[in-house]
Design goal:
The complex is a heterodimer. Chain A is α+β, with helices and mostly antiparallel strands. Chain A has 22 helices and 15 strands. Chain B is α+β, with helices and mostly antiparallel strands. In chain B, the strands form 3 sheets. In chain B, strands 1, 2, 3, 4, 5, 6, 7, 8, 9 and 10 form a 10-stranded mixed sheet that branches. A 4-stranded mixed sheet of chain B has the order 13-14-16-15, sandwiched between helices. In chain B, strands 11-12 form a two-stranded antiparallel sheet. Classes of the chains: A alpha+beta, B alpha+beta. At the A-B interface, helix 1, helix 7, helix 8, helix 9 and helix 10 of A face helix 9, helix 10, helix 24 and helix 26 of B. Chain A: It comes from Huso huso (Beluga).
Chain lengths: 617, 738
């Protein structure tokens, strides 16, 4: 029953099992090491079908009632490990399971008191980061919830209790090593860098220039390390403009940075001004360097009060400044909260569309995409651009990575996308730890925000508009998001590279890409057609943007039923049919004339088939 | 290139940029002699008036680009013929043989706006004076929007063409003026291609018998109305329960008669009925109704449920109102308008109420399906004339229950049965004749297509026809040529096509049917009507077709164990009382929540793997009911995804299908079994994937200058989110640089 979603619960009936045969579209996170797990767990008392990862340890079991918002109260047993909360109903037909990594938990509350009246009014209320809430009821006698509450609280928020995140305890082994996916130098080399205009600098090798940047930076050839130091003094948190991507033909570049420290008095910095002009001159055809400030104009102005600001016209005469009106992390957080209100547990019925509109979630998606389109368009026409917001690690990362996804088909491949995330998000210091709050109990922390979720949503919107342009499928994106919270892998832990180095993340944890790349067949989009030099411009209009139902509303069993994509399913059937014919043909060839047999290909395996289809017929 | 002012004189608006100026044109004309541009005319088509030097333009952002040409008005269409030599590029891949890109059938004109002095004014037929506006905006029923400028045309010609267009497209006319009549008098009678097609027309007794036999219906074909002796609204032949006598039919001229639509394998069936006239002596009508219900229940063997549509679905006026609001969202004049309306897109959609109406119809259909499928109860749909929403519901129910209607010929037969023979007033509802005081116009048939589209997009492999087929069908309603959509009933048609004078010695006019697709599209274009995802019936059934085996397929849709003792066995006094009240004009609205009532049906259906040849239910929650993008967004340039859209995957499926066919053929060749004839459907090969727009095959592919659409005026949209917007991202904890 590996088919069952690890994070999901599911009514397991005989018919369901047969209904779920297509493996490529179920929203599960599967570990191929569960077989090993069961071997290890022999030491403990045998626990039938509780999945266990290598390194996972059982903490406690308890009989409990799960208050399912869709099917009512279900009696069963909950098991807590140092990785997950697993619930299994006593009822076997249909059996219900619930498999929640503790990392997903945002908040645990006690509901009801010892004297509360009413059935199932005493128990626990668990808020999750992945758009669901879980309620458990316990017997009121003898403070029965005290133990479980304390254990759960402790293991769900290990960092608040001086415990280690599970990623450091995991013993999982995979055939691929995901930490090798990205190397900054190799990625720059792929882009044709360094060249006579751009050079690699190791000025940040010990994180002495900027503690939230990676060690390897690509900067104008003309700028000395001393120049860089001077510029860094004028950029918020020393995040100087560096190259993210260079256009292979027109040599225009996407630079990323943080806001200039202009302040109320309108300070200027000659080094910064000269530096930006060097960037402008580099490709020889940029008349005006376009600076995309991701923020709304008013916010950029307001930032002056805290020492920040934006590039003024007087100071930067060869630049034009464009505000992209993308709101800050707090607005995004509240927007997603509103979205949760209308989709969980019940999907808003009567006023679905206006409710959806009032969350503004898709409107934010539209703004982010629209910004990235402008960046990509500017670059395609040969103009270099600089992108920043306030600190250059939230909106900036969204804009650079999305525009790179539009411009460079490499990032639309399985490996390329991993490189993109490693590079623009992880290495350039998107504050995953603060935004997600891994292992931290402060659920109301104002630093938390679904910026990365929003980015993945934008990517999903693009895959919807260009269903043949991406090598990966929806499951790949969902797997990334699920492991954004799970703390099973080291990939998304901590705020920046300097901390990761300190914590020896690469040495002590497994990368998410190790798991994905060890079994990447299930993350492949069968429709993928390689088109190398094509720029994708999605339409950032509400007419085309849609809610990612299969992610945001996946806990609703009724909605989930609908999410099997019939087109994809049919296509896979047809691929299988073609496979049959190929095989048959080959058999015939062998029987017809034995001498051809050497030439003919061996029966194509499913992955080979996928590649085969890419060649135009 | 030359900039020209836009007529008004004081205009500050950006001016047109045209490829050719009138001056250039004159030179050109002289050079080319009197090579006048002849429009492509159909048989029987005559030009009423025309004007040269008309500028057709599109409004992109701030600049307006245009082409000069001749604007004509014929008895069939409004046509614009560009002065530029016929498109250098290849002809549009998906071309309608009757119409070119810039042709608007007169019956396809929805609204015309005149622009004078930058003021946009709706033109109303019959109120046109000698003044004419400098610009014309023609909005079409197929959602195209044309902009013409008359500024550079000769005054006399401009006046004439304006008045001609308004007169012929916006003013009341008689049926005989509809183009089909001129066409059929001139055109050689179309080859009897309808005979060869598998579509049942339901004009003969035989067709009804075939249908009755196919579904194993326990009813009889009645000829009581042969030669329309009883009713002009009813077809000559129809099916009624055995117990209904010719006298019964005569009694209220066909009203109050349960007409058979379709039989379920369990023996229960779907019926429809027109309300009895309200002024009836109570006793008589009550007794009569009792008899009719007894007839339906076969003397109470099979229970019956009565569905009065007037109490649970919107009125026709609401339909029209809602659709008018809805379509307005897609009739976009300019890029600016597109992005402004984008901000309130979802709430505008919701406010139109159109999607909600679609949802309600589908919900009601599910309820009826539930009665037939789970409770094995016959259903009698009642509506005033049983020819509007009744047709929508009965057709939807049959599509959900019977896979035959999801094939192309089955679907066409269904429309013939429920809509054409069923007496839907196509002419009045489409308001082709502009006769205002008469019946209510309402997009009832379009509503049906919308509902089918919802099912199609949710369960694509269940349908043999494609989205493009549905879109083209919806367009065909507005081409005044097909008998299918031109009349209010079969009687209406039969009288209309009779020769005017009996002594004329002429056979009746042979109107083409819309199902004669070769009239509009060549084979290659028609291949786009086939859904490559369609999962065909298991092959063994093919050999046994036309026999009763089809029935067995249908009955597997739900486990038979569900035939629990129905609480609705027999028909109850309550039902008749209810019915009585309905017929007395006191309508009881018993608003069940359909989602609740059919919950069990959904659950048992969802528990099984989806069988595309079995029961099909629509998903009705908010996110599932969508806008029919292909139909509504195909002409909107801002909404085109360059090289994207769901068409790209469909295309991949097509390619794979053709590859499989090649392989299949090769395997057969090699195994020397050349005798088996595989259907050799032509696979459409158009421009490369990357050069296509998401609206393929509709938008013209030529001269598409691609620029990414960048939303404008988004700044205001999120104006006052909350105080959070002003907060800084990271509450500054005194970082080093500050």
């Amino acid at each position: 029953m590996t088919m069952l979603g690890e994070f999901g619960f599911r009514l397991k009936t005989q018919t369901m099992a047969s209904a779920s045969t297509p493996t490529y579209n179920s929203n599960n996170l599967e570990n191929n090491s569960s077989k090993n797990a069961s071997r290890e767990s022999l030491r403990m008392e045998p626990l039938a079908d509780v999945p266990q990862l290598p390194g996972e340890e059982r903490i406690t079991d308890k009989d409990i009632i799960y208050i399912c918002p869709f099917n009512g109260a279900v009696k069963g047993k909950v098991s807590i490990t140092n990785y997950r909360l697993f619930f299994k109903s006593f009822e076997v037909d249909p059996a219900m399971t619930l498999d929640v990594p503790l990392g997903v938990i945002s908040r645990i509350e006690k509901m009801g008191g010892a004297s509360s009246r009413g059935e199932n009014s005493y128990g626990l209320d668990i808020t999750c980061k992945d758009m669901r809430n879980l309620r458990f009821a316990l017997k009121q006698e003898g403070h029965s919830r005290r133990d479980i509450f304390e254990l759960l609280f402790r293991y769900a928020f290990p960092l608040s209790h001086s415990l280690q995140l599970f990623a450091f305890l995991s013993q999982e082994k995979f055939s691929e090593n995901g930490w090798n996916v990205y190397s900054a130098i190799l990625e720059y080399r792929r882009q044709g860098l360094p060249n006579n205009k751009w050079r690699i600098t190791f000025v940040n090798e010990q994180y002495e220039l900027c503690d939230t940047y990676p060690t390897v930076l690509m900067v104008p050839f003309k700028a000395t390390d001393e120049d860089l130091r001077k510029v860094s003094a004028f950029r918020s948190r020393n995040r100087i403009p560096v190259v993210s991507w260079i256009h292979p033909v027109n040599q225009a570049v996407i630079m990323r940075c943080s806001q200039p420290l202009v302040g109320m008095s309108g300070k200027r910095n000659k080094d910064d001004e000269r530096y930006l002009d060097t960037i402008r001159e580099a490709n020889g055809q940029t008349a005006k360097l376009t600076i995309y400030d991701a923020r709304p104009n008013v916010n950029a102005v307001a930032n002056k009060a805290t020492g920040g600001g934006y590039e003024g016209e007087d100071a930067y005469q060869n630049a034009e400044l464009v505000f992209l009106d993308i709101h800050n992390i707090h607005v995004m957080r509240e927007s997603l909260k509103k979205l949760k209100d209308i989709v969980y547990p019940q999907v808003e019925e009567t006023h679905w569309l206006s409710s959806l509109e009032s969350t503004h979630w898709l409107e934010h998606i539209k703004l982010v995409l629209a910004g990235a389109i402008q960046v990509a368009d500017k670059l395609s026409s040969g103009n270099s651009v600089v992108v920043h917001c306030s600190d250059g690690w939230d909106r900036t990362a969204q804009l650079t990575s999305l525009s790179m996804l539009m411009l460079d088909s490499y990032y639309r491949t399985m490996t390329g996308f991993q490189v993109l995330v490693q590079k623009e998000w992880i290495s350039f210091g998107h504050k995953f730890s603060s935004r997600i709050g891994h292992g931290d109990k402060n659920h109301a922390d104002a630093d938390r925000s679904p910026i990365f979720v929003q980015f993945i949503d934008c990517v999903w919107q693009m895959t919807k508009q260009f269903p043949t342009a991406f090598e990966f499928n929806e499951l790949f994106l969902m797997t990334i998001l699920d492991n954004l919270y799970s703390c099973r892998f080291g990939t998304f832990l901590y705020n920046c590279e300097s901390v990761r180095d300190n914590m020896e993340v690469k040495e002590k944890t497994v990368s998410l890409w190790s798991m994905i790349n060890s079994e990447n067949g299930k993350y492949i989009n069968p429709f993928y057609t390689k088109e190398s030099s094509r720029v994708l411009y999605p339409v950032a209009s509400m007419r085309h943007l849609e809610l990612w139902v299969s992610y945001y509303i996946r806990w609703n069993p009724r909605i989930r039923q609908q999410q099997q994509n019939p087109v994809e399913q049919r296509y896979m059937e047809m691929l299988a049919l073609r496979d049959q014919y190929l095989k048959k043909l080959e058999e015939l060839q062998i029987s017809d004339s034995p001498r051809i047999a050497n030439n003919s290909n061996s029966p194509a395996s499913p992955t080979q088939l996928v590649h085969h289809v890419q060649t135009p017929l | 290139m030359l900039s020209l002012g836009s007529g008004g004189g004081k205009s500050t608006k950006p001016s047109f940029v045209s490829y050719v100026t009138p001056e250039d044109m004159k030179i050109k004309e002289k050079e080319e002699g009197l090579r006048s541009k002849h429009p492509y005319l159909l048989p029987g088509e005559v030009v009423f008036c025309s004007a040269n030097h008309v500028l057709k333009y599109t409004q992109e952002d701030v600049s307006q680009r245009g082409v000069y040409g001749t604007l004509l008005c014929t008895n069939f269409k409004i046509a614009f013929i560009s002065d530029e030599s016929a498109s250098q590029e290849t002809a549009p891949p998906f071309r309608n043989k009757l119409l070119s890109e810039n042709d608007i059938p007169l019956t396809c004109v929805d609204n015309i706006y005149g622009v004078s002095d930058e003021k946009k004014k709706l033109i109303i037929g019959g109120q046109v004076k000698s003044k004419y506006p400098s610009k014309l905006i023609i909005q079409c029923k197929d959602l195209r929007v044309f902009h013409f400028s008359l500024t550079y045309a000769k005054e006399e010609e401009a006046k004439k063409i304006f008045q001609g267009i308004v007169h012929h497209s916006l003013e009341p006319k008689s049926l005989k003026c509809v183009f089909a009549f001129s066409y059929c008098e001139t055109a050689s009678p179309s080859q009897a291609s309808r005979k060869s097609s598998l579509t049942l027309m339901f004009e003969t007794k035989e067709d009804w018998s075939v249908e009755l036999g196919r579904t194993k219906g326990n009813c009889k074909v009645s000829s009581a109305n042969e030669d329309y002796v009883i009713s002009e609204k009813l077809p000559q032949f129809f099916v009624v329960p055995f117990a209904v006598s010719d006298d019964d039919i005569l009694r209220f001229l066909g009203k109050g008669i349960p007409f058979w639509c379709w039989s379920h394998h369990s023996g229960c069936a779907l019926f429809k009925m027109a309300c009895l006239p309200t002024i009836q002596e109570d006793g008589i009508s009550q007794k009569y109704m009792h008899r009719m219900l007894d007839a339906v229940t076969q003397d109470q063997l099979c229970p019956v449920k009565i569905e009065d549509l007037s109490s649970c679905l919107p009125a026709l006026q609401d339909l029209q109102l809602s659709y008018n609001k809805f379509k307005q969202l897609f009739l976009i004049d300019s890029t600016t308008e597109f992005w402004v309306s984008d901000m309130k897109w979802f709430s505008s959609l919701e406010n139109s109420g159109w999607l909600e109406i679609i949802r309600q119809c589908l919900m009601k259909a599910v309820e009826i399906v539930d009665y037939l499928e789970s409770a094995h109860t016959s259903v009698l749909i009642v509506e005033e004339h049983c020819s509007d929403l009744c047709c929508v519901l009965s057709s939807l129910v049959q599509i959900m229950l019977d896979p035959y209607y999801r094939t192309r010929s089955g679907f066409q037969s269904l429309i013939q049965k429920e809509w054409v023979a069923g007496g839907h007033s196509f002419l009045d509802r489409c308001n082709h004749l502009y006769q205002k005081e008469k019946e209510v116009p309402a997009p009832v048939f379009l509503l049906f297509l919308e509902c089918v589209w919802q099912l199609l997009q949710q369960h694509a492999p269940a349908f043999q026809f494609s989205e493009t087929y549905l879109t083209v069908l919806s367009d065909s309603i507005n081409i005044p040529l097909f008998s299918t959509f031109l009349f209010n009933s079969q009687h209406h048609r039969d009288t209309a096509i009779k020769p005017g004078h009996p002594e004329a010695q002429r056979s009746p006019l042979n109107f083409p049917s819309v199902w004669d697709w070769s009239l509009q599209f060549d084979c290659k274009a028609q291949s786009l009507f086939t859904n490559p995802l369609y999962v065909e019936k298991p092959i063994q059934d093919k050999a046994l077709r036309k026999t009763s085996h089809q029935k067995h397929q249908r009955q597997l849709s739900l486990p038979n164990t569900l035939s629990k003792p129905s609480p609705r066995k027999g028909f109850f006094k309550e039902e008749t009382d209810n019915l009585k009240k309905i017929f007395l004009g006191k309508r009881i609205s018993k608003w069940l929540n359909p989602t609740e009532s059919s919950k069990e049906l959904y659950e048992s259906w969802q528990r099984k793997p989806l069988d595309y040849q079995g029961l099909l239910l629509p998903y009705l929650d908010g996110p599932s009911v969508r806008v029919w993008m292909q139909r509504y967004l195909r002409w909107v340039p801002e909404a085109q995804i360059f090289g994207g859209g769901s068409i790209t995957t469909v295309n991949r499926v097509l390619e794979l299908a053709s590859e499989i066919q090649d392989l299949q053929k090769e395997v057969e060749r090699r195994s020397c079994r050349m005798n088996s004839s595989t259907a050799w459907t032509q696979v459409y090969s158009g421009p490369p994937l990357s050069a296509r727009l998401s609206s393929f095959p509709f938008t013209a592919t030529h001269a598409w200058s691609f620029k990414p659409a960048i939303p404008s005026s988004i700044r205001q949209s999120l104006g006052s989110v909350s105080s959070l917007a002003d907060k800084e991202d990271d509450d500054c904890q005194g970082s080093g640089v500050l």
